[in-house]
Amino acid sequence: MKRLLSAALLVLLAGCAKTPDWDYDKSVQFSNYKTYAFAPDANISNMAPHYQVNDLMEKRLRSAISSEMGKQGFNATEPNQADMLVNYHVSVDKEIVSDTIDTMYTAHWSHWGWGVRSRTTVQEYDVGTIIVDIIDKNAQQLVWRGVKEGRLRKNQTPEQRTETINKTVAEILANFPPKAL
């Protein structure tokens, strides 16, 4: 019974894993892009305040994007010389999950009927979303967008936060430039 419950919980948690979402303009020749720069207005200081959204996170986010773009063969340059501009957005929202489980079934012999006891738990947590936009600098058009959301963990070390941002950005940019299906 214990193994069955553990297996069911593992399947449930795997089903909750968030995968990145991508959208892009199919008419764009992404092979023409060689250089990038961060958009002049790329910053998270105008985002909704949250204790995890700060200048430290912004440094981690920019570093992770630069690393992934470099791995893809794109060179960083000044905004006026870039083929594409990279912009990013972050948000933090509250989510509420409730779960009701039946904890005990009973039969009443002293009177007719049966009973069920249920237990409901409610949990509130923060969900963070990172959006990375690729903009064609000359056309001033959005040509690619990647998004990933996930549950925010509290009480992380700076190293854990950096690792989380690096992994998330790598997953978002895994399909940039878009791969043929």
Automatic annotation (TrEMBL):
Identification of the protein by name: DUF4136 domain-containing protein
Record InterPro entries: DUF4136
Domain DUF4136 positions: 22-178
Residue ranges that the Swiss-Prot or TrEMBL entry lists as coiled coil: none
Matching PROSITE patterns: PROKAR_LIPOPROTEIN
Signal sequence annotation: 1-19
Lineage: Bacteria, Pseudomonadati, Pseudomonadota, Gammaproteobacteria, Alteromonadales
One Pfam family it belongs to: DUF4136
UniProt entry keywords in alphabetical sequence: Signal
